[in-house]
Amino acid sequence: MPRSLKKGPFVDDHLMKKIEAMNAQNDRKVVKTWSRRSTITPEMVGHTLAVYNGRKFVPVYITENMVGHKLGEFSPTRQFKGHSSKVEKVAKVAGAPLAGGPGAGAPAGAGAGQKQG
């Protein structure tokens, strides 16, 4: 459920103070933050924020399209390794019968329980 419109977007005070101070000095340095819950506001556009993902700080350059989103959306906490493909499964099945293993002496196409005729 979204936050009430009358309350406005949530931004941690310590983060907003840093951004406002940098805007007043026209400074563009990287700011480390643990506040993944803070909403991106128009004052943050053009800054680079290093958002903590639980392991490291991920640098996030704020653009106009990001306004209204949360900082945590741009700093993923999990790394997707990918699903196994069918090619890998076929390679495993084809390479299964090893020399000396079950079915090593049977001719091609003959199963273990079939008559050889």
| Major sheet description | 3 strands, mixed
Classify the secondary structure makeup into a structural class: alpha+beta
Cα Rg: 28 Å
The percent range for helix content is 10-25%
What is the H/E string? HEEEH
- Molecular shape: elongated
Adjacency order of strands in the biggest sheet:
1-2-3
Rounded mean pLDDT is: 86
**How many distinct helices?**
2
Task: Outline the low-pLDDT stretches.
Answer: none
C-alpha termini separation: 70 Å
In percent terms, what proportion of residues is strand? Answer: 5-15%
For the secondary structure, the number of strands is: 3
Please give a structural write-up.
The chain is of the alpha+beta class and 117 residues long. It is 19% helix and 11% strand. The protein has two helices and three strands. It has helices spanning 13-25, 86-94; strands spanning 31-33, 48-52, 57-61. Strands 1-2-3 form a three-stranded mixed beta sheet, with no helix packed on it. The longest helix has 13 residues, at 13-25. The protein is elongated and about 85 Å long. The N and C termini lie far apart (70 Å). 9% of the residues are buried.
